[in-house]
Amino acid sequence: MILKEFKTYFTEELSAIYPETEITSFFFLLIEEKLGFQRIDSVLKADFNIPSDVIEFFSLTIKRLQKEEPIQYILGNTEFYGLPFLVNKNTLIPRPETEELVEWVLEEVAVLQNIQDEKISILDIGTGTGCIPISLKQQLPNATISAIDVSSDALITAKENAKLNSVKIDFFEADILKAINLEEILKQGQNDVKLDIIISNPPYVRELEKVEIKSNVLENEPHLALFVDDNNPLIFYDKIADLAKLHLSKNGLLFFEINQYLGKETVKMLEDKGFKNIELKKDFSGNDRMIKASF
What we know:
By secondary structure, this protein is α/β, with parallel strands linked by helices. The chain has eleven helices and eleven strands. Strand 3, helix 7 and strand 4 form a beta-alpha-beta unit.
């Protein structure tokens, strides 16, 4: 089969499930991944004979896409903040909204570095693929960055991603909800752990919001990293805020990615705990998505 014939076939097979723009995006991702072709090549090399093994992969991919499996899981990789990341069903697929959080952190780190001469220390809680700390380390090579996750399988992927992007991150496996302090997790004995930045994009989707979640997410991405109980949706934020009170340095900052419906509630929780300079920020879609605070 030549390339232009496959493109027509690919579109026809998926048109009942996906909009044309998304199908086109899938097609370009596939030909780049398996053939090394850029978008323009779909025109310049329209008569290219696709090798039989690649046709076989493309056919299997169509079947998986028809079942609404995310293209990132099919390919085993995605891009975040301009960097390559391995993904699988043990990790959430990094979202563009989280790129905005990374950008905000970098803006504030620039301010912090003007205040202090010491290396910036950063901790990411619930790291998943490691996309947040790895992206930050690429931009802040002199920073000391650590990351925590409860899933050993997710940490395997995060460590592979750190290696893939040639950065050093200290990864730790721990259930943050059971932590008394961060010394016990970060293996620093009785030392007084102080951090300039604590970041977290923890589980925040309430069970009642499942009806809003697309089936490709609901049926494929890890629920451990997505959902919280309706009766205590801020459980992770509450715990991490308590740990931040113990471990943030002078001028240190806490950053959260949050549930868009619980912005006011999250701000109030932080206010009640004594946090100051609380800023609630919207994402590119206009939803309450990020919070910054100091203590």
